[in-house]
Amino acid sequence: MKQAVHFGAGNIGRGFIGALFSQSGYHVTFVDIADQIIDQLNDKKQYQVKLATDQQESVTVKNVSGLNSLKQEEEVIKAISEATYLTTAIGPNILPHIAPLIAKGLASRVKETDEKLYVIACENQISATDLLKGYILENLDQATKEKLADKVYFFNSAVDRIVPIQNNEGSLDVLVEPYYEWVVETKESIPAVEGMSIVKELAPFIERKLFTVNTGHAVIAYLGYLKNENSTIDQSLEDAGIVEQVKKTLGETGAYLIKQYGLDAGEHQQYIEKIINRFKNSYLNDSVNRVGRSPLRKLGPNDRLVRPAVEAKKAGLSYTNLAKAIAAALLFDFNEDEEALKLQTMIKEHGVASALKEVSGLDENSEITEEVINHYNNLK
Ligand SMILES: NC(=O)C1=CN([C@@H]2O[C@H](COP(=O)(O)OP(=O)(O)OC[C@H]3O[C@@H](n4cnc5c(N)ncnc54)[C@H](O)[C@@H]3O)[C@@H](O)[C@H]2O)C=CC1
Ligand SMILES: O=P(O)(O)OC[C@H]1O[C@](O)(CO)[C@@H](O)[C@@H]1O
């Protein structure tokens, strides 16, 4: 049986990427640090992916097992040696932590086989695989790096499926939205995986996804949180003001995307509407706290709020609604989120402009910062 190794047996790992490999005839070895999930994968060897619809259709995902990256290094190295694909869905901040083990796996593999391995990071981050590749190379000697050529390939990708936090402690089953899109950038001819689309140039796809799905979701999460910190995304969309704000913000990112990539304006508008409808799915029960999680990452210079604002400004386009979304993100003070707490401390100690400089790379006296501060004071 063909083998896939997937780092991160969480929501996207089990509910999306691992499920596609299993449906394509692969055995999937999930590598994680959560013993409870790993033990269950090895014990039950299957789980259900349930669709968040009124019919609640489900798919059984079979041929799965689990390894602990902290306790089973040798087994992970062996699994990497035998795999055709190595994928991740663990969060961009964790990539540097798994790179040393992947490097050991690759070093061992290239001594044993000339078979090709395809590495794809499935994270909400532009060029996530390039970042992972960089971290892996830092852990390899020159001779091994040279041996990777024509044997280990690294492809960037964009992943789109909403998978909320699961309220089913003790179960491997995952509730997911029916929609999904996995776009992988490569010019190679690679083994087929059901549901994977191949493109030669990822930039328009990942920017369209990140600056529509993730920007829109972030706007709802941060404004929804300000209204009621215990609410869900679909509940927040019952507020006409929030709906209007999402539409205006996606109008701004849309204007940038249309200009930058020559998208058809009508088609892009339909894409926006389809996405807002996905957000309204009440079966997902997706909390504003999950979607707003890790605000330091989400306020990063290349992420879903700041990058489109900077690009829109450069292109002479409107960015005031994006500035409002940034301001709302700066007010996200959910006390179970480490990054939110850190952000609030930064703001308290040094002020909004200084926090924006440090987190988003925006100059303290830039026009965007000025606009964000105006919105921040109004929202506060
Ligand atoms: N949930 C969603 O709807 C979507 C998430 N994504 C992206 O997918 C990635 C994963 O997100 P989720 O699945 O939602 O997160 P999650 O928190 O459900 O899953 C992450 C998994 O990684 C594991 N992990 C953490 N540190 C690890 C380490 N050092 N070694 C091995 N495993 C480790 C955790 O135990 C957990 O099982 C993120 O980059 C996210 O932005 C992308 C599209 C959709
Ligand atoms: O997973 P992140 O980057 O923390 O952000 C949450 C976002 O990612 C998703 O989980 C999937 O794209 C969305 O639900 C949401 O926009």
TrEMBL record:
Limits of the Mannitol dehydrogenase C-terminal domain: 202-379
Gene Ontology CC annotations of this record: cytosol
Reactions performed catalytically: D-mannitol 1-phosphate + NAD(+) = beta-D-fructose 6-phosphate + NADH + H(+)
Entry-linked InterPro entries: 6-PGluconate_DH-like_C_sf, 6PGD_dom2, Mannitol_1_phos_5_DH, Mannitol_DH, Mannitol_DH_C, Mannitol_DH_CS, Mannitol_DH_N, NAD(P)-bd_dom_sf
Pfam families tied to this protein: Mannitol_dh (PF01232), Mannitol_dh_C (PF08125)
One GO MF term attached to the UniProt entry: mannitol-1-phosphate 5-dehydrogenase activity
Keywords of the record: NAD, Oxidoreductase
Domain Mannitol dehydrogenase N-terminal: from-to ranges: 3-188
EC number from the UniProt entry: 1.1.1.17
Family, per entry: Belongs to the mannitol dehydrogenase family.
NCBIfam families registered for this protein in UniProt: PRK02318.1-2, PRK02318.1-3, PRK02318.2-1, PRK02318.2-5
Descriptive protein name: Mannitol-1-phosphate 5-dehydrogenase
Species this chain originates from: Peribacillus castrilensis
The encoding gene: mtlD
